[in-house]
Amino acid sequence: MSARRPYVANIDFPAFYAPAFGGNEALSREFYAALTDRTAKIIIHQAARMLWLSDQIDEVARGRPALQILFFIIAAEAVSKLQADFEGEGQSRFHVRRFFLELCSDELRSRLAPAFQSNGSWLTPTEAVDLLYDLRCDVAHRGQYYNLHLPRPESDESHQFVTWKGKQLIAFIPATQLRQIVLEGAVLAAKRRTP
Q1: Which of 16, 81, 157, 173 could be 115's S-S partner, Cβ–Cβ 3.0 to 4.6 Å?
Q2: In what order do the strands lie in the sheet with 167-171?
Q3: Is residue 118 part of a domain?
C-alpha cells in the first residue's frame, strides 16, 4: 500500500498551527475546538492552505522565496479581508498592510523590523510590508520569481541582497520567519473574531 500523498485538503489544522502555540499541539487543538465563529474558522483554514502551498515550493523550486512570499501575502490579504468582512474588490495593499500593521501583534512586528536594511538603516515595518507586497506583485503580474534570495537557515549566509525601487537592500529575514509571522498573525485575527 502506498503512503498517502500530501494534499491541501488533508491538512490537520490543529497540528499545522501548533508552531503558533509554541509547538504545543494540545493548546492548538483547544484553540481550534473553541472556534465557534464561522469566519474565524475560515481565516484559519485559508491561511493554512496558502502557507501549506508555500511549504511545497521547495520541492519544485528550491531557493525561490518569491514564490513563497506570493502565498504568504495572499494569506495575509485573505485573513485581513475575512476578518474585516470585506466584500468588495481591490484594496489589496491596504489589507496586506492592515494584516501586518494592525492584526499582527507588536511582538510580530518587532520580528519584521530587522528584516531589511538600506544604506545602514532598517526599513520601517510599513516599508518592509510594501516591499513584500511589491515582491508578490512581481511574481503575480510579471512572473519574476527568480530575482529574490533570502537567507536560508541551513546556510552560513546571514543575509542576501535585494533590489527594490532602484535601491540595493540587504535581507536578513528567512522565508521561514515570514511564514511564522503570517501563521501567528492568522491566529490573532481569528481570535479577534471569537467571543
Answers
A1: 173
A2: 121-122, 116-118, 167-171, 160-164
A3: yes
